[in-house]
Amino acid sequence: MRQPMTSLLIIDPQYDFYDVPVNEQFTLDSEHQEKTIAPALPVPSAWNDAQRLASFIEKQQQHIHSIVVTLDSHNEYDIAHAVYWQNKSGEHPAPFTLISHQDIVNGIWLPTKPELLEHVLAYTQSLEQAGKYSLIIWPTHCVMGTAGHNIVAPIQAAIQRWEQQTNKQHISISKGENPHTEHYGGCEAEYPLADDKNTQFDPQLVELVKQNDQVFISGQALSHCVASTVEQMVEKLSSEEIKKLTILIDTTSPVAGFEQQAEGFIDKMSQIGVNILTSSNL
Fold it and tell me: Which pLDDT tens digit goes with each residue over 116-137?
């Protein structure tokens, strides 16, 4: 009898999204120095989520056939970071500022590079017409090459032990490197760009579901990157394939202030057949 094929998809398990305890240290291998992590965009309860996910990986080690990790990967200069924008006084927006299409039309916020005006007008109009999250200025986060871009230690250690025990290698998928579009979901950017295939639909995660009997899903944050990734996947899956998905609900949490959106996402996914379980119930 064939053993069921099971995969684990971990979305953006990076330091900048975890409420790391003050006493936790992180070693930068290139400098061999210990530095205290100051996460840029900590999600409440995320550190406890990481502990539970690490325990799940340890317990299910022999039953997990593949591990796929998405990594939010930004530049300092990014459409969702303050430096991309300025007002008439040359000031950059504060973190968590919402920038609407009308704000740009009215000249309240404009791109620091004037030649991008047409792009940002089309971008914000597209987000609003599609009913997606409005453009929000996040604290500068997950900049490639910084400590905040790295996978948190409990999850990284569990993945490494899984690799040692199974003689397999986990797969990493980078997203968000193009500075001109936000990239919450692991399948495509919020506003795919014609001149960058990395922002366009990538079938990898859909194929992951098709090739496996079960796919467990975890990561941060439930309200944004987890929700967007799963929503992008289910759009391309049949009702039977959707039943293969299980969100480990005790290993993912919403961004503060977006709890209602996370609840709405979970309700919607539950209704269409996605399994919602805690890691300890498996």
Answer: 999 999 999 999 999 999 999 9
